[in-house]
Amino acid sequence: MKAFAAGGDRRLLLFTGRAHPALADSIARELGTGLVPTQARDFANGEIYVRFEESVRGADCFVVQSHTAPINTWVMEQLIMIDALKRASARSITVVVPFYGYSRQDKKHKGREPISARLLADLIATAGADRIITVDLHTDQIAGFFDGPLDHLFALPTLADHIAAHTDHERLTVVSPDAGRVRVADRWCDRLGAPLAIVHKKRDKDVAHRVSAHEVVGDVAGRVCVLVDDMVDTTGTICAAADALYDNGAADVIVAATHGILSGPAVERLEESKVSRFVFTDTLPTAAATGLDKVEVLSIAPLVAHAIREIFENGSVTNLLEEM
Length: 324
Hints:
By secondary structure, the protein is of the alpha/beta class. Helix content is 32%, strand content 26%. The strands form three sheets. A seven-stranded mixed β-sheet has the order 11-10-9-12-13-14-15, with helices on both faces. The chain has a six-stranded mixed β-sheet with strand order 1-2-5-6-7-8, with helices on both faces. The relative contact order is 0.12.
């Protein structure tokens, strides 16, 4: 395994759990290094065992694990990997979480509810992590849950530039699927120089994933509408929003989201949807696994690798974000 080296004796070592090794391989190629050989297996009762097959003493260690299904298994595996690195005298431990689990539980909506996104940050810190790198958190406030450096990367340039290169720019309208995504959609408008529209929807507060799409605010008739979101899970919200756009005369609808979670009935809904294209990044392995022609998956590895290199070389991740 070739370690990425800086001045002096510092070494960068890259590790991956079993959740999404293909992404870790891509990040390693971007860095011009390899992944540290790791034993990882399950005992008969479901307990996880991890052991690294080379010394990590004094190394700057980056642990890649995206929180895909079964999410609790992969969160626990990552925590165990962090603990193993801490006990093996790693110089620093950076947790690379392209998709941060439990991010939708970032505040209390009702009494007697947890704030699970904060709990996860506490678990990562307690395990021994010094830093977190993540991509497109569900809400910015989650960055404040971790009592240490957290580098919040954005997939917007990757997604938006791809859309611009493969769509008639003059006909584009950026659409927020609900009021909560307006700030993100507005950044898309700045990047693409396109107008903004909003789908006003009402979610059933007592039934998960039940959405009713209502009126469209903005001119979408005859336009190519790009529905933008941070994640698409069961696709209920996004498909309802797309139907509302078509009902209001949209010529075409494209969905662009960072995280393709695609749980439950999602793949069937994607297949049946009138949406022409779904564009995701590879923060999760689920989008590529659909096998659908209308699903495109873009690599987030160059962005993550660039951030890792800047951190290791004591550069500026902020400058990286400003450049993009």
